Amino acid sequence: MTHPLLDLPPLTAARFADIERRVAALLGTEQDVVITQGEALLPLEGCIRAGARPGSSALNVVTGPYGQTFGGWLRDAGATVVDLEVPFHTAVTAEQVERALAANPGIDFVSLVHAEAATGNTNPVAEIGEVVRAHGALFMLDAVASVAAEPLLPDAWGVDLCVIGAQKAMGGPAGVSAVSVSARAWERFAANPAAPRRSYLSLLDWKERWIDGGRKALLHAPAQLEMLALEACVERIEGAGLDTVMARHATAAAATRAGAAALGGGLEPYVYEARDAAPVATTLRTPAGVDAAALVARVLAVDPALPLVAGGGALAKEMIRVNHYGPDATRTTVSASLAALGTALAGSGVAGVDQDAAANAVAGVYEA
Question: What is the rounded CA–CA span in Å between residue 94 and residue 317?
Fold first, then answer.
């Protein structure tokens, strides 16, 4: 008995290359694009292992947990690391990056997360890229949460390594990712004797055996279902129009922020300024005495389908994240999430909760 998801013909090199081409078009890049067979941490680690080595110096911008992870990988690769840490309720500025580079002129690698879904902030990559380019460092950007949710222009912004994943705003699978690689980055990788080779982490393998070979023979059997799902979600974005998809995320974010502010009960945006807030997720600070993880558990016990999670680690007691990306970037999801939070807050004895005001605020954003 055949099964449409199991009995599939092999994915050809030509089709694989066509999916790469369409991903490159989504990014508006002329750089080489490599689709990697795994979650986006795979190419992110691959970029760091190939781009950093003993004797190199890196500026690692930390605006959330992924920046912390990158710092560990950079140190493991032997680089001297300068961590530029900013509070998670804000974004880093180009001026802060410029000062850090001026104070450490030997820095030759900069790592940054565009949008931090875990903390709900987003960073001004265009301005930062200009500063990094003037300094001459290689620039790696984690754009997993920002792709298809907000403008992403790696070529125009001077990004040498732009890593994306499909599982958030693109509404696709988590098991496949991609990275655009500049000519400068390829040169840096090739000159690094410690760069991974003949390894699942090796981007150089894809360069030498796939790209330089004319994209005629794949390195190994691709993750077929994930590749087909990636192709489908790119096709869906092409059909709707990238600007339309980004606008849907921006509206969901604005409506969530406005609705949460109107809901009252001491709930307030975790990211102070709206300009610093990511369009994929809105983080909220719970009122004093209300445990965020317990509040989320109370909501999900009633409706486990709602895209609500408590903050990670030390933030679990004070932060709630409303995820509104991909299929959840809708008025229905935003309204249901805020209504459920209002009910849970009121049920916890919190005074001043105004469900009608929250609903009206959400409606106002969408109707505008």
Answer: 31
